[in-house]
Design a protein that fits this description.
By secondary structure, this protein is mainly α. The protein contains 17 helices and three strands. It folds into two domains: 32-216 and 325-347, Citrate Synthase, domain 1, CATH 1.10.580.10; 220-318, Cytochrome p450-Terp, domain 2. The protein has helices spanning 34-40, 43-52, 58-71, 76-84, 91-106, 114-135, 149-158, 164-177, 184-193, 199-210, 213-216, 220-229, 232-244, 262-274, 279-298, 308-318, 326-347, and strands at 18-21, 26-29, 32-33.
Length: 376
């Protein structure tokens, strides 16, 4: 069998959870287009779908929302652990520590359960918001059970009831963050769970993978571009200047999607609905339209479509989430997908045990020095 560095293209699992079709620009969650879910459903509905394989009935959704609202509460021992961490600790490290401590406090075991998936998914925004406010010297804001998942996250960050336009935008973003196949963090979680470790430990491993800049890197460069442009009048001259210097416009083109990124399409639709309600949304739409026209002029035939990071940046900027919380916020959405994969892994479990190819020296007979040019 040929050695495939990084396992790219190697099939490691069958899954019913999602389809990432880069050639045709499709992202499917359990038979539903992720784009349609993002623009029409609430976070709790999409999470229920990933965990249960179907959308909830009305009464099931009401009960799920109540359970998740209850699960948001941060236990006092976990708050004390967060308070004891150095203020300069990265938020992803604080999140990983708090999740691990939660598992020790509440207990977790094999096999994983949907109830544990709900608990972990619900509490992550509380941990992030608690840490973010602590880092600024502000008191924690307790969860508001009457608010939905996205709205409550914004409320805990700011202490103010969020604008409905911001709730709609963040809700769509979190749904589109939920799931994207067997990526590095999801694979890390499934590998850990395949040892019959518990869900909390597997999620901690996934958070550790997400923390790496090659995976969970935030769309900060797109935000920097939008802030540098500033106004619609500056958009075209600013981008022409970049392109004429041979530079790149951030937020266009994608490694996997060879056509339009369905996540970007969904976030664009949400943003278009909200134009006129926040100048940040208006500017993002105008910049994208201008950039597509200029890219066709300067790079004809390259088919450089808008990727998800462009509209992710536009939305996170519009809803006033600071750059240091971009990756944690992405993680808050991905919790639903991680835990769905962990439930699936447990249902068909076999421990992951790939092989490696030894490329080091071989020993000589009679205890001689290793032969440095050994063949494999």
């Amino acid at each position: 069998m040929a050695n495939v560095t990084g396992l790219e293209g190697v099939v490691a699992a069958d899954t019913d959870i999602s389809l990432v079709d880069g050639e045709n620009g499709r992202l499917v969650y359990r038979g539903y287009g992720a784009k349609e879910l993002a623009v029409a459903k609430r976070f709790e509905e999409a999470a229920f779908l990933l965990w249960n394989g179907r959308l909830p009935e009305r009464d099931e959704l009401e009960q799920a929302e109540k359970r998740m609202a209850t699960h948001r509460e941060l236990p006092e021992p976990i708050a004390r652990i967060l308070d004891a961490l150095p203020p300069a600790a990265p938020v992803m490290s604080a999140l990983q520590t708090a999740i691990a401590a939660l598992g020790a406090l509440e207990g977790d075991q094999w096999p994983p359960t949907a109830a544990r998936a709900e608990r972990l998914t619900a509490i992550v925004p509380t941990i992030i918001a608690y840490w973010a406010r602590k880092a600024k010297g502000l008191p924690a804001v307790q969860p508001e059970p009457r608010l939905g998942h996205a709205a409550n996250y914004l409320y805990m960050l700011t202490g103010r009831r969020p604008e409905e336009a911001h709730v709609q935008a963040l809700n769509a973003y979190l749904i589109l963050c939920m799931e994207h196949g067997l990526n590095a963090s999801t694979f890390a979680g499934r590998v850990i769970l395949s040892t019959q470790s518990d869900m909390t430990s597997a999620v901690c491993g996934a958070v550790g993978a997400m923390k790496g800049p090659l995976h969970g890197g935030a769309p900060s460069e797109v935000v920097a571009m939008l802030e540098a442009i500033g106004t619609k009048e500056r958009a075209e001259p600013w981008m022409r200047s970049v392109l004429e210097r041979g530079g790149r416009l951030m937020g266009f083109g994608h490694r996997i999607y060879k056509t339009k990124d369905p996540r970007a399409e969904a976030l664009r639709e949400v943003t278009l609905r909200l134009t006129g309600r926040d100048p940040a949304f208006d500017l993002a739409v105008f910049v994208e339209q201008t950039a597509i026209r200029l890219l066709e002029e300067y790079k004809p035939g390259r088919r450089l479509y808008t990727n998800v990071e462009f509209y992710a940046a536009a939305i996170l900027r519009a809803v006033r989430i600071p750059a240091e919380l971009f990756t944690p916020t992405f993680t808050a959405g991905r919790m639903a997908g991680w835990t769905a994969h962990l439930l699936e892994q447990a249902s068909v479990n076999r421990i992951f045990r790939p092989q490696s190819v030894y490329t080091g020296p071989m020993p000589l007979a009679e205890g001689g020095e290793p032969e440095r040019n050994a063949t494999r």
